[in-house]
Amino acid sequence: MYQDLSMVFCGEAGQGVQTITGALLHVLKKYGYNVFSCIEYMSRIRGGCNTTEIRITEKKRDAYVRRIDMLFALTHNVVEHLKDRISSKTLIFAEKEKFGDQWSDNCIDTPLTKFAVEAGSVGFSNIVAAGVVLGMFGIPLELFTAYLQGKFAVKGEEIARKNVIAAKLGYSFGRDTAATANISLQISLPAGRPERVLMDGSTALGIGAVAAGCNFISSYPMSPGTGLLTFLAARTKEYGIVVDQAEDEIAAINAGLGASYAGARAIVTTSGGGFDLMQEGVSLAGMIETPIVIHIGQRPGPATGLPTRTEQGDLNLALHAGHGDFTRAIFSPGTLAEIIDTTQQAFNLAQQYQIPVFILTDQYLLESVSTIDASSVKRRTVEAFLIKTTETYQRYAFTDDGISPRGVPGYGEGLVRVDSDEHDENGLITESFEMRRRMVEKRLKRMHSLRETARVPTVIGSLVQAETLVISWGSNRSVLEEALDVIGNKAFAGIHFSQVFPLSPVINSLFENKRLFVMENNATGQFADLLSFETGRSISRKILKATGEPFSVEEVVDALHHSDHE
User: Fold this and answer.
1) Residue 186 falls within a domain, yes or no?
2) Which of 100, 135, 283, 317 sits at a 20 to 30 Å CA gap from 392?
3) What are phi and psi of 29, to 5 degrees?
4) Are 38 and 106 in a shared domain?
5) Does residue 173 share a domain with residue 53?
6) Cβ count near 325 (within 10 Å)
């Protein structure tokens, strides 16, 4: 009996593991279950060993677990690839003739190929596997067949019919197997069946950008940042978005700045390796005080690193990118709702403060899929900070807060002059030392207001009895929440930062008289070092991981249990 089920599907690239996942997530969500899914895959088009984890839980969970309750093997390489996650309790569905001496008492001979061929082609094995799952748990077959008929209708009635046959064969096998082996899913459906949406992180990012009034995106494709580009590109006509697939990353950020100078609400999307090339453009944005939102989908480096894996290794890159001193802000959302909200905030802040604003995500967060309550999707007001210029307009006029009224060409009678050289109030080149001093102070002055209004971090648990605060940022929010819930020790509480720079002043009171742990997916503890620098507080322990994998709930639980006994 399963009350928190972790299913893993493993196969070679090209065997349709993602087809299984997409079908099951759709049907399980339609039936009313809480679902979460994350993927890991090799950087190759064919072969290798790729896996997808699907969790079905009574209490909503959005975190990766190392535990595998059920494993569906589409290839014989599964056991070696997942040996660290397979236990004596793992039930393995596989074809015995393909497993050879890897066969064990945990295995159930599942004729995926036989049923697929009966349906018309060995390529239907993935649909058979999905049918087995639904049959075991008694999910109405009609939900699955309706999904298949809709999905494959464009390929013709015959293809749709064969997919349905494969689904029925797998479903019957799953139903019979569950009855024989006494397998059941003891997970209650959420009360009231709230309206929920199934989406991945890239979709949430796109929704946030659209809600923020984004009307220009430029990018040179680089995973995992490309998902935002393709999402917005598919909606150009619906939302009036101009999409520029640039020839390289240098051109991408310069196009974004050009569009912003003309009045667009612009974003560029890339990964760490691509952003390396954008740094001069970031410095240009700082000098000409032109807003730009920059999304970095993090993956392991240096260089090409692990292009399809995950990491939080680009915080220092975003924090220090671009030569010279100027103001910036950096967001690091950890949930779908946070992605949607912080993306909108990023656009508004970029426009208000006329600065580059970063959104840091990672492969794990962008490509994980989860259900989200529709009520948690909030829309902020799209804030416009443009003025109609007059003949005496000065683009860089000095003000008390350091933010000059911003005009754009063609809106008013004034000339909107900008320059990458140091300049005076009119945007004319200057080498005056006094003007240089005043302009540097002007560009930095807005940091005070930006800091005072920074997002307050989210407290997880209760601070009253907690002796240790476990700090996370970005994609580690959900795994920390679940780990603290599993531990159930009031001596631990958590704090999650969805804005990592500048930091809210309230953190000093939150940290008072607490031992501080920081968990992050990089090798050196980049955010831990930033916290120490900004607050003067020492970090008692860094919980780090830089293998290219996300943290599992079990890893965090073990780390905290170990520290509790030190």
Assistant:
1) no
2) 283
3) -65, -40
4) yes
5) yes
6) 10
* 5, containing H or E segment: strand 4-13
CATH of the domain at 528: 3.40.50.920
Q: Is residue 442 part of a domain?
A: yes
C-alpha angle 133-35-79 in degrees, rounded to nearest 5 = 55
Q: How many domains does the chain have?
A: 4
Question: Which residue in 111, 124, 136 sits closest to 167, CA to CA?
Answer: 124
Contacts of 508-513 with CB under 8 Å at 24 or more apart are 508/535, 510/457, 510/459, 510/463, 510/469, 511/469, 511/535, 511/537
Which CATH number fits the domain that encloses residue 316? 3.40.50.970
Tokens of 347: 């656009």
Distance between CA atoms of 160 and 180, rounded to whole angstroms? 31
- Out of 396, 420, 453, pick the residue that ends a domain: 453
Annotate 35-77 with three-state secondary structure.
EEEEEECCCCCCEEEEEEEEEEECCCCCCCCCCCCEEEECCCC
Q: Which residue has the tokens 């978005």?
A: 241
Distances (CA, A) of 77 to 13, 51, 219, 513: 12, 11, 37, 51
48: left (phi over 0), alpha (psi -120 to 50) or beta: left
Angle at 498 between CA 496 and CA 500, to 5 degrees: 100
- The single residue listed with the structure tokens 């899913």 is 185
- One-character DSSP codes across 285-354: HHHHT--EEEEEEE---STT--TTS-----HHHHHH-SSS----EEE---SHHHHHHHHHHHHHHHHHHT
Same domain for 171 and 61: yes
Q: What's 164's domain CATH number?
A: 3.40.920.10
Strand 369-373 versus strand 34-40 pairing type: antiparallel
* Nearest CA among 210, 45, 181, 189 for reference residue 109: 181
One domain, residues 250 and 321? yes
Strand ranges inside 180-252, DSSP E: 196-200, 216-219, 242-245
* Same domain assignment for residues 146 and 236: no
3-state secondary structure 444-475: HHHHHHHHHCCCCCEEECCCCCCCEEEEEEHH
- At residue 301, what is the residue type? G
CB 362 within 8 A of CB 223: no
- Asked whether residue 360 falls in the same domain as residue 391, the answer is no
Q: Is residue 187 part of a domain?
A: no
Closest-CA residue to 541 (of 521, 518, 520, 511): 518
292-330 pLDDT per residue, tens: 999 999 999 999 999 999 999 999 999 999 999 999 999
341 in the same domain as 266: yes
How far lies 234's CA from each of 47, 200, 244, 368, 397, in Å? 30, 16, 13, 20, 40
**348 and 283 in a common domain:** yes
Single residue among 342, 376, 410 that ends a domain in this structure: 376
Helix (H, G, I), strand (E, B) or coil at 111: coil
60 domain residue, yes or no: yes
164 burial class (0-12, 13-18, 19+ CB within 10 angstroms)?
Answer: buried
Which residues of the chain fall below pLDDT 50? none
From the list 1, 23, 20, the residue with the least C-alpha distance to 9 is 20
d(CA 490, CA 463): 9
> In terms of residue numbers, what domain contains 215?
199-376
Beta bridge partners of 454: none
